[in-house]
Amino acid sequence: MADEMAVRDAEAVSRFVERFAAQLTEAGMPRMAARVFAQLLASDEAAMTSAELGEALRISPAAVSGAVAYLAQVNMVSREREPGSRRDRYVLHNELWYETFTRRDQVLTLWEKTLREGAAGLGADTPAGARVAETAAFFEFMQGELLGLLDRWRAYRETLDLG
Question: Does this model's pTM top 0.85?
Answer without folding.
Answer: no
